[in-house]
What does this fold into?
Amino acid sequence: MGNEHKLRAKIRTVSDAAATGLAVLSTFLVVAPLVAIFIYLIYKGASSISLAFFTDVPKPVGEPGGGMANAIIGSAILLGVGSAIGVPIGISGGIFLAEFGRGTKLANAVRFTADVLNGVPSIVMGIAVYSLIVVPQGHFSAFSGGVALGIMMIPTVCRTTEEMLLMVPNAVREAALALGVPNWRSVLSITVKTASPGIITGCMLAFARVAGETAPLIFTAFGNVGWSERLDEPISALPLQIYVYALSPYDEWHRLAWAGSLVLIVLIVLAVSLVRYVTSRGVLKGAS
Amino acid sequence: MIADVPEIHISQVQVPPGPATTGDRPAATTHPVEDSAIRKFLLARGNSAIADRGFHVLMVLCALTIFGIVVLIASEMVVRSKLAWAKFGFDFFFKSFIDPYSKQHMYWDPVNGHFSALPFLYGTLVTSFLALLLAVPLAIGVAVFLTEMCPKVLRGPLAFITELLAAIPSVIYGLWAVFVLVPLLRERLNPFLIATLGWTGFFGDDNPTGLGFLAGGIILAIMILPIVSSLTREVMTAVPISQREAVLALGATRWEMIRVGVLRNARIGIVGAIILGLGRALGETMAVTMVIGNSPEIHQSLLANGSSMASVIANEFAEASGDLHLSALMEIGLALFVVTIIVNAFARLLVWAVTRGAPAQVH
It folds into this structure.
C-alpha cells in the first residue's frame, strides 16, 4: 500500500516535469522557425540589396542589376487606393456599431458580416474583384487591385474601431451632449477623437496585413515589368514581384526577391511594433 | 430609428440637471464678459436635427456597404460559375472521368473541357489536416507555457514573436519554403521518411523534387500556429483564477492543475481556436501554391505532387482557356468561400461561447 502510494507520487512528479518540458520544447519549436526565417531573410536580403533596388526598374532576363522601383511605387499606389476605400468605410461601420446600433439586430448582422468578410480567403477576393471590375473594364488595372485591398481592410478597421469606441467611457459622451453639442459633433470630435490612437492602430494593422497580400492582386493589378503610375493600367507590387521572381529560374531574380522581402518585412515589422508600442502605453488612459 | 435621435438627445440632457447646474453656475458667473468657445459654437449653429439625422443615415449606409460587398461577391461568383454548375452539377466535386484514349482516371483536362474538382478538394483537405496535426500540439504547448509557466519577463517578448509570425506575408513564407524548406525535405527528411516509413504507403519515393503535400502541410502549420496559439491563450486566460486555486488547494501538481483546472474548462474554446486555424489553412494560397507541386492528381503518398483549391485558382485563373474553364475555377472559388464561411462562423461561435462568461477586463 505504502509502496503503491510512493509510486503514484513519483508518477505525478515525473508527469509534471514532462509536461513542463514539453511546453518549453514546443515554445522553442515555434520560436525556432521564426528566428530561422528572420535570420535567413536578413542575411539574404542584406547581401543583395543595393541602391539600384530602390531606383531602377527590372532589367531584361540575363542582364545583371535592375531593381524594383516600379514595384515599390506600385505597392504605394495600391495601398493608397486601398486605404482610401477601406479606412473611411471601416471607421464609419465601426462608429455605427458602437454609437448607433448597440444591441440592435442590424448591428449584430453587420458585425457577423464583417467577421465573414474577414474570413474570406484572399484568393476568392481576387477572383470576385476580377469579375466585378476587371471583366466589365476589359483590362487589368491598378484601380481594381486597390479595390481588392480596400475591401480586405474594411473588417479589421471596422471591428477595431468598434472595440476602441466601446472603451470610451459613457460619461464623456454624456458630458458632450449635456453641453448641447449635437450628436454628430459629439461622436466625431469627442468620442472618435478620444479613441483615435486605438483607431489609428487598427488602420495600421489592416494596412500591414494587406501590404503583404499577393493572391488578390494576381488577377487585378496583374503586375507590370515597366514603370507605371496610372490607375487604369496593370501595375506591379512588391509581393507580386517577389512571387514571380521566386518561381523564376534566374539567380539574379532570386536575389531581387530576397531584397524585396526584406523591404516588405521591415515595413511590416515597423508597423506592428509601433502598434504594440501604442497599445502597451494604454490607449485611453488619458480619457478615463 | 431616425426618430430616436432627438429623444436620446433630450433624455441625455435631462439626466444631470441637479448637480450640473449648481456646479456650473458659479463658474459661469465669474467670467461674464467673454463667451466660452462652446457657447459661441452653440450660438452659431442652427438646429442640428438635420445634421444629426444625416450623420446617422451616413453611418448606417457605410455599415450596409459591408453587407453589400459580401452579397455582391457571393452573387457574382454564383452567376459566373453557372456554366460549370449546369454542365457537371454535383459530380464536379465527387467524380473522376475516364479518358477515352488512355482509359485512365482523369480529373482536370482543360483542353478537352473535362473538369472535376476532386484532386483539389483532396489536396486542400490533406494539407490542412497535416497542418493541424503538426500545429495544434505545438500551439497548445506554447499557450500553456505562456499562460501558466512562463516567467513574466519572457511573456511579453514571446507573445510579440508569435504575433510577428502572424504578420509575415504568405509570399515570404513561400519564398523561404522554396529555398530552405524544400531542399531540406529533398535531401534530409524525405529520404529518411521513405526509408523508415515507406512501407505505410504514405511516403513513396517517386517524387525527387521535395515539393508536394508534405511541404505544403509543413509551411501551413508554421503559418497557422500563431493564430491557434494566441486564441488558445485568450481562452485559457478567460478561465477564472479560482478554478486554478481550487485544484491547487486539493494538492495537485502544476500539470494536474493545468489539465483539470484550465484545459478542461477551456476545451470548447480551444476547439474553436483549432477550427479557426483550419479556416485559415483552407484558404491559404501563395505559400502552398509555391511548394505543393501543382499537378491535378490524387496520390496516397504525402511526398507526391498535388494541388489545392486555392493553388489551382492562383495558377490557372489568369490564363484560363475558355468560358467553361473559367467557370469551373469560379465554382472552386465559390466552394472555398462557402466552406470558409461555415468553418469560421462555427469557430467564432465556439470561442464566443467560452469567452463571453469571462470577467470584463479593467482598462
Summary: The longest helix of chain A spans residues 2-48. Chain A is about 75% helix and 0% strand. Chain A touches chain B through 101 residues (CB under 8 Å).
